[in-house]
Specification:
Chain lengths: 212, 307
């Protein structure tokens, strides 16, 4: 299962799954739903968030924004650091999460990989996950990007399949996350067949499959 | 965000996420149960919270549905936008009065009884087996984030939040505890769920000793202290592709674990050594540890008595 041969069409499929807009694949770019009123959207979002925040506030009778308790079913008290397990304190005890070794994607040598195609798995993953590579924040907004494509803005992302820069930003984390997860699972299941750092990433394990 | 104009600065007390401040704790007057708030800061962009954060929260909520007895309850997750760059995420947890660190410190003179240790260990491993079977690694298991209720129930805390914390961490000066770190993490090799078993082994030993087993001051020092106990691993066991060479360490031989944990019984010592195994692939799993003879003698002897 870890030696899936990926043809270039499989790669396309993989990429297509991870990138939302259709124009990534077809080269035909249309703004199907008309222009987006970003002010309206933003207003709606804020209203929704306010609604959620109010519900939270009511449920816990606590004003999370001001970090102050309100009257209600929960009797709030402020306790000092010494009187509570360190875990509940914000951060000092969350040691060293930032010192974790980097995600295995980039460490992993793909030398002994059986995958025959020209793109090494790591390369594909990196392109899919390239953190912010050459992609400005503006392009992560899907509607705006479509807009720009139509209007021929100089910052547009050309509809060429090999340019996958727009998979950046958030997808980075998804990929990271699942590669980590995947490894955890591998390790538990496969026992001691091979040292992990040498096994190729099973590319067929896309996020979609993992969720189910 | 509109309301942020009235909050251009955060209150001073919250810097460092309240590390030196206070915690809000409440009693539910209906159930009599306690909850506590834990705040973390998450960086946001124009798309809002990072997808990774949302995903981690979703995972924690899914785990929550199992209602596992050895995992701390996460009751709610509340997001409050702070600015365009930052959102405060408040995690509402059940409140447990003490952690294992305090529990061990408070234990009267000879320390915990061997039965008590066995019970704590069984619960700890149960919680861990549950997390691992859901493909969640803890990665930072230590006495401070193992909670012990007044009834002696063990509850693991602080797992699955790595992505949420990662931003927070970057903003907070932190004293890093290396004492529970396994060799593969210290060597910056690849790692997975066996990391938690190593930490569990360190904690197991500490329950008897009432002081940590390996108190390193740096990564290298920590590795050195580990090898003084388990011996320098064979060349072929050393992970490939790591920058730290095996040659940096003296060729020490393994010493009997009872030199360091004299109170432990024979089966306990065997289990401990299977947890403190250098090669993560040869280290015992949480599930297998629960099947270990160490946990079985008590039951078999009870059975003998009743027969």
């Amino acid at each position: 299962m870890s030696h899936v041969q990926l043809s270039s069409s499989a790669l396309e499929r993989l990429v297509a799954r991870r990138t939302f807009p259709l124009h990534r694949r077809t080269g035909v770019c249309r703004n199907l739903f008309g222009p987006v009123d970003h002010d309206e959207l933003s207003r709606d979002m804020k209203a929704k968030l306010r609604e959620v925040a109010e519900r939270d506030q009511q449920r816990w009778n606590f004003n999370f924004e001001a970090n102050t308790p309100l009257a209600g079913d929960y009797e709030w008290e402020e306790v000092s650091a010494e009187k509570t397990p360190a875990f509940y304190l914000g951060s000092a005890q969350q040691s060293g999460r930032d010192l974790e070794p980097p995600t295995p994607v980039k460490q992993r040598p793909s030398l002994d990989s059986d995958v025959p195609e020209t793109d090494a798995p790591g390369d594909v993953m990196e392109r899919l996950a390239a953190p912010g590579s050459s992609t400005g924040p503006a392009e992560t907004n899907q509607e705006n990007r479509a807009d720009k494509l139509n209007s021929g803005s100089p910052r547009r992302v050309p509809c060429v399949r090999r340019k996958r820069t727009s998979a950046a930003d958030n997808n980075t984390h998804i990929t990271d996350f699942f590669v980590k997860r995947r490894r955890a699972a591998d390790m538990m299941i496969s026992g001691d067949t091979r040292h992990l750092s040498k096994s190729p990433i099973p590319l067929e394990q896309t996020p979609r499959k993992r969720i189910r | 965000m509109a309301h942020c104009t009235s909050f251009p600065y955060e209150p001073v007390a919250e810097i460092g996420g309240g590390a030196y401040g206070t915690v809000y704790k409440a009693r539910d007057t209906e159930s009599g149960k306690f909850v506590a708030l834990k705040n973390v800061r998450v960086q946001t962009d124009q798309n809002g919270l990072p997808v990774s954060t949302v995903r981690e929260v979703a995972l924690l909520k899914r785990l929550e549905q199992f209602d596992h007895p050895n995992v701390v309850r996460l009751m709610d997750v509340c997001a409050t936008p702070r600015s365009d760059q930052e959102t405060k995420v408040t995690l509402v947890f059940e409140h447990v009065d003490q952690d294992l660190k305090t529990y061990l410190e408070k234990a009267p003179a000879p320390g915990l009884s061997s039965d008590r240790i066995k019970d704590l260990m069984r619960q700890l491993l149960c919680g861990l087996a549950f997390l691992h079977s859901n493909q969640v690694m803890h990665r930072d298991l230590k006495p401070e984030n193992i909670l012990v209720t007044s009834q002696g129930q063990v509850k693991l805390a602080d797992f699955g939040l790595a992505k949420i914390y990662s931003c927070h961490m970057a903003l907070t000066p932190v004293v890093v505890t290396l004492w529970y770190r396994p060799p593969e993490v210290l060597l910056q090799s690849t790692y997975a769920t066996p990391v938690d078993i190593w930490s569990t082994g360190c904690i197991f030993a500490e329950m008897f000793r009432r002081k940590p087993l390996f108190c390193g001051e740096s990564e290298m020092d920590q590795l050195g202290k580990i090898f003084e106990v388990i011996g320098l691993p064979q060349e072929e066991e050393w992970p490939t592709g790591v920058t730290v060479s095996r040659k940096n360490f003296p060729a020490v031989k393994a010493r009997p674990i009872t030199d360091f944990v004299p109170e432990i019984n024979e089966q306990g010592a065997k289990l401990l050594m299977q947890m403190l195994t250098f090669d993560p692939l040869k280290r015992i799993s949480a599930l297998n540890a629960l099947e270990h003879l160490y946990f079985q003698d008590e039951e078999t002897s009870n059975q003998d008595e009743t027969l």
